[in-house]
């Protein structure tokens, strides 16, 4: 096989902190999305009603679950030419966030994907700057 024929896989790590500025709008949008998903699913009425009720209760109780229900990795890469999603997992959680805290940073200290790749990024980090994406 030539290089062009050899499968190539890329792990994309994304970490975001979102501020929920309108919990009612978030929950409402998540509930609308759940309703649309269950209408389009074609599942049996009994199975669909039970699962839908559980999903609705979950997003009403937890904003992080509402966010997770609206984020779909397939949508994120769907329009990227030349790639196909092989595997995905994602989660969300409510956190205490203080951007001023010294111990708060997205990604780990050794996470080249966060800080950048190559010597330039390492030099920049040593100088006190970080590359944010």
Provide key terms for this protein.
133 residues, mainly alpha, 2 domains, disordered C terminus
Mean pLDDT reading: 78
- Label the overall shape: flat
Radius of gyration: 20 Å
Distance between the termini: 35 Å
Which sheet architecture does the biggest sheet show?
none
Helix/strand/pairing category: mainly alpha
Helix content range: 40-55%
Strand/helix succession: HHHHHH
Number of strands: 0
Number of helices: 6
Beta-strand content estimate: under 5%
**Domain unit count:** 2
Describe the structure.
The chain is mainly alpha-helical and 133 residues long. It has two domains: 23-97, no CATH class; 100-133, no CATH class. 46% of the residues lie in helices and 0% in strands. It is built from six helices and no strands. The protein has helices at residues 23-41, 45-61, 63-70, 73-77, 112-115, 119-126. The chain is flat, with a radius of gyration of 20 Å. The two termini are 35 Å apart.
Task: Give the topology, please.
Layout: H1 23-41, H2 45-61, H3 63-70, H4 73-77, H5 112-115, H6 119-126
What's the gist of this structure?
Helices cover 46% and strands 0% of the residues. It is mostly helical and 133 residues long.
């Amino acid at each position: 096989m030539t290089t062009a024929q050899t499968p190539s896989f890329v792990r994309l790590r994304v970490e975001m902190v979102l501020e929920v500025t309108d919990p009612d709008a978030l929950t409402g949008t998540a509930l609308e999305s759940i309703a649309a998903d269950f209408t389009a699913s074609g599942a049996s009425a009994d199975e669909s009603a039970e699962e839908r009720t559980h999903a609705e209760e979950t997003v009403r109780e937890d904003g992080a679950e509402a966010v997770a229900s609206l984020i779909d990795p397939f949508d994120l890469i769907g329009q990227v030419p030349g790639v196909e999603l092989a595997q995905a997992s994602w989660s969300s959680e409510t956190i205490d966030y203080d951007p001023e805290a010294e111990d708060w940073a997205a990604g780990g200290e050794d996470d080249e994907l966060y800080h950048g790749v190559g010597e330039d990024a390492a030099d920049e980090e040593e100088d006190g700057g970080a590359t944010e994406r």
